[in-house]
Amino acid sequence: MPPFLIRGLFALIFMLPLITMADDAIDTPLTLQPSKKYRLSVPPLPDNEQVVFIRGDHVVSQNGFVAQADGHAEARRGGLSLFADHIYFKQKTNTIEATDNVHMVKDNVITVDGPHGVLNMDTHQGYFDNPTLFYAPTPERPLGSRVNAALMNFLNDHQEHALDSSYTTCPVGRNDWSINTTSMDLNQETNKGTAHNATIDFMGAPILYAPQITFPLNGSRQSGFLSPTIGASTSTGQDYAVPYYFNIAPNLDDTLTPRTMSARGIQLGNDFRYLEPTFSGELLTEILPHDAQTNTSRWFYSWKNNLSIAPGVGLSADIEQVSDPNYFNDLSSLLAPMALAYLPRNINLTYNRIPDWNINVQSISYQTLFGATPQYRMEPQINANYSHLDTNGTYQIDATNQYTSFISPGYYINGNSIYNGIVYNAAQQSVTSADRFVSYPSITIPFHNSFSFLKIKTGVNLTQYNLTEFANQAGYPSSTLTRVLPITSVDSGLTFERDDSLFGHSYTQTLEPRLYYLYIPYKNQSQYPVFDSSLANFDSTTIFSENQFNGYDRINNANQLTAAVTSRFINPTSQIEELRLMLGQRFYFVQNQVLLPGEAPYPYSVSDYIAEASANIYNHWKLSGTLDLNAQTHQTEQIYIYGNYSPAPGKLVNVGYQNNINQFFTINPTITPAQVYNNTTQTFAFFPIRQWDVSTEWPVTSHVSVLGRVSYSTIINQVMQGLMGIEYNQDCWALRLVSTRFAVSSIQTNSAFFIQLELGGLGLGQNPLQSLLLNIPGYVKTTDINTP
Q: For a tag site, which of 11, 137, 716, 731 has the least CB within 10 Å?
């Protein structure tokens, strides 16, 4: 066979599968696939090189240089589209003149309507007669905004100059408010508008004149006036504040707030915020050069700063100070916190570059305000805490180490007493200073599986005091005290689960019993001073704690067992815990003999019953409660109930009730709760609390919401703090009227009434009433709720 026939036969054999595949694919539609080898892209042409498209019901062209379109006329080039009844186009200059029902769209962001306009398609220069310019809605400004003018000159593709113009964020047909000006500059590149010789009109009446007003065009941060606040109070008289916001840089801003108080004088406030890669913070200052009531200069400042010195090394500061303890009672506005007791002065240096170690050095002190008890200064306090969990989880080693130098507030209170050679003031504070070192190393061995856990922990608490100043007191035995106490505990628990139903709904129910045994031997600590220790509140958060005291100055002896059981109802679909119940009690095998000065020992072998419940019903109802029931008398020692109903943002009701019985405690037995409330003594101690707290925000119409809060003490039958307000939202503006009242003492209250008008698009930053209205948990501004 000739060679060419042999090659032809082999070629035919190899082509048979391909022929068969092609034959099988005859009925399959042919589809093109993108090439993996060739990547073709066509760069867009610059605007001045793009073609202008003209069309209409009737189009006439003269010599290819002039075109006229009539009836549904349209001109397009790039992102610019222009519609009108008549369009006249000069190709030589690329200029368009449009008349009658002119409508221009730029990049789907700006639209301009008017009867007549001229525009160069290359330079975007031109003018419109009697135009209305619309800015499309943005996430920052969902309603958009518009500008009306007698004449608007287009300077380039992002700048306009309007004459005899007005600006508003209200929809067409409603000019509830507007900025009216002889001339206005608009800049889409900076998103800023500037009105010259401007007045702000509200409901047809001028309310503010300014030679220049700047405002954002898209809701972004811009320098300008914020919403003013107008009001009156029993302490300040007529009160008027107009903040001005400076948008210095993306990471810097400043708010300057002049405030006029008819009964006090003129105050100047300033809030400077900064954000850098390695540090950030805020500096807030207020100064009243001359208070007409006190004839003194009064001031306040707050500085919060966080600095990253190096990886794992940081320095933070939280420093606040006022000129006098009555500053907030006298000058507090809705911008300032009320009923403060202390202002912090804290500096903290942290070091976390060593694995398993957390080290910090801090200085802690407080300025005491009106009616509060002065506190120790801790200068310095050094913490070096270690925590290491074995990679296999077989053990965990912890070590708490703390050195503190306590500087006493001294003899500032009447009613000093001497216990075991130590002089205490009536707030149970030692009147002399000392140093304390605490080291508490411990090891925990955990065992756990899917249904149980067991934790065995043992450690030693070593505490040493340097009491040089105490040794100078008559009758005090030593300048150094050392306490060594071993602490051992065993914590265990089981978890059982079952499928169950409650009120017709399916749940996974758990039953979780828990036993916690604690042993600490007794050591007499009556001669130890008290710096930061107090009796901890006995509740569900402390029932499993080692020490019944806060701080390290007292460590109770213990041979006790805590038993508790928890049951949870979990939605099997969402895995949300919708109901939780807990009941617990502590059993004392020996009586605790470690006490605070003046404290009586607990006489019973069992503690109160602690019960806790929380529920999340249909994501609208949230209920929680804690009950402390005396096991001997079966009387309620403490109860706290809180309920929240919020079916939607802007709709909420909060109800809370707190009742603490037999909480009044003092080493001065002559002090009564009435004296504490009436400020007839400088001694402040624990006292019974029986108080209701109800707050709400609820819309009564589509535009009106009512706001309210009342905190009422049934012991002295007095409103401790009250708020009532109405918020009216008309989409492009909102009006808030708020009245507040809070008790300074049982015979003195401060009341205030404030009005705020927020014009959409002018008020940047936070609502000036926000800090007070946050007293209504869950509050949301109606201007945010009604956003479409």
A: 11
**Terminus-to-terminus CA distance in the chain, angstroms?**
86
Contact 97, 87 (CB under 8 A): yes
C-alpha distances (whole Å) from 342 to each of 326, 385, 427 are 12, 28, 15
Give the count of beta carbons closer than 10 Å to the beta carbon of residue 69.
24
Residue 136: CA count within 13 A, CB half-sphere: 7
| pLDDT for the residue numbered 326 | 87
Cα–Cα distance between 646 and 780 in angstroms, integer?
12
Assess contact for 280 and 305: CB atoms under 8 A. yes
Exposed e or buried b for every residue in 447-479, given b needs 16+ CB within 10 A? eeeeeeeebbbebebebbbbbebbeeeeebeee
Task: Give the 3-state DSSP-derived string for 54-113, with helices as H, strands as E and coil as C.
Answer: EECCEEEEECCCEEEEEEEEEEEECCEEEEEEEEEEECCCCEEEEEEEEEEEECCCEEEE
| Residue whose entry in the numeric block shows the structure tokens 């990253």 | 308
Identify the pLDDT of residue 19.
33
Contact 304, 280 (CB under 8 A): no
Q: Using the 8-state DSSP alphabet, how is residue 47 labeled? A: G
User: What whole-number distance in Å separates Cα of residue 230 and Cα of residue 318?
Assistant: 31
124: number of CA atoms within 13 Å, CB side?
A: 19
Nearest to 596 by CA among 543, 535, 639, 545: 535
Say if residue 216 is preceded by a cis peptide, omega within 30 of 0.
Answer: no
The model's pTM: 0.78
DSSP letters for 256-286: EEEEEETTTEEEEEEEEEEE-SSEEEEEEEE
- Please state the length of the chain: 788
Q: What is the DSSP letter of 665?
A: B
* 550 conformational bin, left if phi > 0, alpha if psi -120 to 50, beta if neither: beta
Going 41 to 42 to 44 to 45, the CA torsion angle's sign is positive
Q: What is the rounded distance in angstroms from the CA atom of residue 387 to the CA atom of residue 399?
A: 7
Reference 715, options 693, 694, 742, 688; nearest CA is 688
Rounded Cα–Cα distance for residues 523 and 483 (Å): 8
As a dihedral over the C-alpha atoms of residue 46, residue 47, residue 49, residue 51, rounded to 10 degrees, the angle is 130
Do residues 392 and 368 make contact, with C-beta atoms less than 8 angstroms apart?
no
SS3 18: helix
Contacts (Cβ under 8 Å, ≥6 apart) of 94: 48, 52, 120, 121, 122
Residues of the chain below pLDDT 50? 1, 3-31, 35, 37-40, 42, 335-338, 664-686, 764-766, 787-788
pLDDT tens digits, 684-701: 344 578 899 999 999 999
Smallest Cα–Cα separation from 760: which of 777, 735, 726? 735
Q: What six digits make up the tokens of 200?
A: 């702000």
CA-to-CA distance for 486 and 459, rounded, in angstroms? Answer: 6
Per-residue tokens: 51: 């073609």
- What is the predicted pLDDT for the residue at 12? 35
Q: Find residue 212's DSSP bridge partners.
A: 196
